[in-house]
Amino acid sequence: MDEKKPLPEHSVMSQQPDQFPFPKILPFVWGAAYGLVLRLLFSGHVFVGMKLPGAMTTAFAVVVPIVIGAITVYMAERKARRSILFYIFAPWLSVTLFVAGTAIALIEGSICIAMAMPLFLLLGSFGGLVMGVVCRLRNNPIRTVQSIAILPFLFALHEGGHPLPESTHKIIRSVHIASSPEVVWKNIASPTNIKPSELEGGLAYAIGVPYPVEAHLLAAGRGGIRHSVWQHGVSFDEKITSWDEYHHMTWQYRFDANSFPPGSMDEHVVIGGEYFDLNETTYTLSPETGGTRLDIAITYRVSTGFNWYAIPMAKLFISSTADALLNLYKNRAEAT
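Above: the chain's sequence. Below: its structure in token form.
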């Protein structure tokens, strides 16, 4: 009998039973390590003569998770053929290790992690699936991996020369309160001794945004000031720009360098910062049968390289926080 010619590497390795998850951790370590290195580079550092932009760009927040998924699948495919499920879900472990590394190194905080994780997992799966298809078409697509790995730097070349896009939006939420407008108004103007349990359901608070503690109306009327205090030493003024007592009040936020002490909020989501801001809040009280309808309108700004994702996330968190505030005023006014 003629000696059989050796089959290509993948053909040989594909004879091994498919395993999920892959028992060797090397593919996941490679993927996570790549992400950590890129996170360090995308911190305004100069790399081979080019100053890389920050992490709130398409180059990092979108492209890097795709590459993490691709590297994970490529390294696993070097050992054995993997399943479609592996291509989709194996990158999740690499992404999780990468994100955990940023948390341990105190690069990212809980707020950024909670908001970015769904996007990172989805993009990691996309990168893994694409690389899985490529590996099935080609035995050893090392050049494809190398090309994908430099994509963040190519995107950075483009984004580094342009300011982040800004987008301003407004959310409006309402609640019926079985109490008079006068009572509701007083609770809005100067709420004190606010307990976290009174703000249940606010997603922003659940992921680490400091809870409000109290607010005091220092001067009533248009041009007046409402001073707010949150946990972790956060404090700021709200300048009243519109005032119709017991009916309508609007204020604009005034943040300064001392409003958010170091560590009180993640750098990338600090209010009034480069990437996110609250512009103004309006409360409108309308008498209706059995009490008062209270409307809250919040205007906010989002400035990232991936606003298509950041804007819906901001809307989700701000809307749930607005609902929590309305329930706070509702419960307090009805208990008066």
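Strands lie at 46-47, 50-51, 166-177, 212-217, 225-230, 235-244, 248-254, 276-288, 291-303.
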